[in-house]
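Q: What does the assembled structure look like for these inputs?
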Amino acid sequence: MKVGIVAVSQTPFGEQTPWRPQELTFLAVKQALEKVGLGFREDYEFIVTCSSDHWDGKTLSDVEHGEVAGAHLGPGEVKVAMDGANAVLLGAIKILSGRARKVVVTACCKETQVLDPCVIENFGFSVPYQQLLGLDFIQAGALQASAYMHRYGLQREDLARVVVAERNLGLANPRMLKKEKLTLGEVMAAKMLAFPITEQELRPACDGACAMILADEEAAKELTDRPVWITGFGSCYENHNLGDRDLAEAFALTKAAQQAIDMAGIGNPVQDIDLLEISEHYSYQLPLWLEALGFCEKGNGPGAFSSSKPQSPFLKPVNPSGGLLCGVPRYVAGANRVLEAFLQLRGEAAGVQVEGEPMVALAHGTYGPAAQHHCVIILERGF
Amino acid sequence: MPRSTAIVGVGQTFHRARRPDVNIGELCTESVKAALEDARISIKDVQAFIVGNMELFEGRYVQDMWQADFIGAAGKPGIRVTTGGTTGGTLACVAFEFVASGVFDTVMAVGFEKQSEGDTRAGLKTVSDPLWIRWLTTGAIGYFSRQARYYMRETGAPEAMGSVVRVRLAQHARRNPHAHLRMDLKGVEEAMEAPYLIPPLRQTDMCPASEGACAIVVTSEEVAKRMPRKPVWVKDWITVHKEAMYIRGGRHSVADLEMAASKIFKRNGISKPMEQISVAEIYAPSTWAELEWLEAYGFCQKGQAWRLEEKGFFYLDREFPVNPSGGVVCTNPIGATGLIRVAECALQLRGDAGEHQINRRPTLGFATAWGGSGWTVAVLLSATKQ
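A:
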């Protein structure tokens, strides 16, 4: 059996948006359903939502998100409390298990209503050891960035260049938050949050939601002439204690990608995958993830960003959307990578469409301190 | 075609009000070890993990991150799902789907709660919409006292019925070494000495705040047949949600329970549930809810449950055993509670429940989870593979 994505939609990403979290989800779901002419609540069998109690400021955040996606006495609902790419993964599993033919997947976060994200993140560390150190995710990221720089003798410029390149790409993407160019000097001179991560090397916080409709092979072909198939997926945890990890590597990403690639039956990923949409919450992550995925030699990741159009040494476009550094909400991040990859494969990525006809894309989501969990999804054009 | 799935191992902690001797990770480890021992497999055999709890109750963030080291998930695929009170039930369903999809052969679901780390009532208060109803929210106790009052008014059940249910559950719990509250209640009078929370709901009518964890091992048919333990087959499962604005005055609704049970029974040719199902482990947070919900599930007519209860019908050695484990009223580590219902049902069907094993020959088991704004997860387990 195959799983197809037949429609995607997203709200504009903004700061301090006037909408409540559930209203954002509703806007996204409504649009996605309209695109394939599905009726609200009646025409699908399951809903996978992705949101967070902490950022919504209420327990059981999916009470609202599920309701506006049509869960009331209709399709069942489940909430994935991790990066949005995992919601897509669970939606695909739901269809493969034969329990649903059509699944609505949504992800939403209104993160600018949280005044100090670092306080919440601090509670994500193990109580007896790491939390008491006052760590937050930026500091964990900074430790990872430092380990990476140290191992390969990288300079701050090597990482800052990633931001310049990404923001440059994002200029043409109407779906992203940030629309201003940045120079290398501006990135380097920005306020230092935790060495080597400056304010501009952090994914800008914003609000928004995205939604997509997944369907089994038969239903997908009924709903659209141009389905995109989810042919592989994988995920993997790393250890939690930062001291137990080799921070300059990302073995969990390598493992997650291997599962997805094996499942998709891709023999030579660096040749067969036409474009990558990767989650980089900090500048250092993009080159490091490229290495873990095998698209760059170890330590050579930053080289992919020396030109104005980032690409791997195998000439495959990397984050043509502009990526998370152009502003995508937390939790929505991974689902939005899937969404952008879908648009590229359909030739609908207005403004940022890559050249040629991409057939296979890899989308990636990550979450946790120093990216402790990775999720990889392989998409293939089905027309 | 989706693959058949089976539960081949279950494990749970000995649930208590407080477990200062362990942290959250260590608590989960206890249940994971127990499940592995029960299944007689090694952690290396587990291919993926499904974890969850109440996201906000311990006041912690991304708890699966910290747990990964303790439950053996590091280096392996995993997903975290949190659906409030139904989390345990959802964990089981997602585990079944991971296997049924054909992607994984052996997965483990782990649910837990360590309520002394945070403030459950403060957490639960934020379940209601901040714009409309948060200021009048009374948490679970307010909801279930209203429910009890409506049940009494509509069915003519006397106030003592809550305590009658409690005596049965307390006696069941005394036979279950894992149960949290194992009160030695001599009779209804003793239960009725307990103070009111909000009348007619007494302290003994409501579930406790427990700390504990539960884990189950789910495998494909192929793997299950090679397992040393007798597999318990997963027949069907369903999730029904009733959504948000439920405190709108007037009678509370049980439409989610009715819909979940009627659909799952219909799909599986169950027309006389009380005869065809041998044991029910239902998620009822109060004694009164247990009565009303047995009716909502369609086990008996409206207003009949308390009359059957009066006759002792639901004792584990009687006609229709309900919650032989002691149920949620005796043990409630929220994120694990739904999973415990499934695990206890599996033990009954295997015949491994020990002192609280039911008398009937077990064939079909019915386990539920309840939570959210009126959400029900129902699971149907079978002792044999049809």
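The CA atoms of residues 88 and 208 of chain B lie 17 Å apart.
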